[in-house]
Amino acid sequence: MDELRTRRVSETMREELSELIRFESADPRIHTVEVSEVIVSPDMRRADVLVMLPPKDEERTAALAGLEAARHYLRTQLMQRLHLYRMPELRFRAATDASAGVPLERLLRRVRRGRPRE
Residue 107 sits in a domain of what CATH number? Predict the structure, then answer.
C-alpha cells in the first residue's frame, strides 16, 4: 500500500481511537489512556496502537486489561466510521518516551529537508 495512504489511515485511526476512548467508552479503567501513535502494517492486517498509560503500575495493568477488553468494540466502531476495505486488528502497546518522540523527529527531518540550503 502507498506510504502516504498508510500515514493518513494511521493518523485518522489515532484521532478516532482517541475520541472513542475518551468520550464514548464506558470502562473507567481506560479514560486516562492517551493514544500517542498508530502504526499500521503495509498490508493493513494489524495496527499497533501506542498508548500513554498512567504512572502507577496497578493503574497501568488495569488500563491495558481494559483496552484488551474493549478491543473488539473499538475495532467495530472504527469499521463504522472509517469504511475501509480491511480493518486491521488492534494491538495495544505502552508507548515509551523514545517511541512517542519518533513522529516529532520525523516531522522535523521533513521540515529541514524542505528548507533551501544556504
Answer: 3.30.300.20
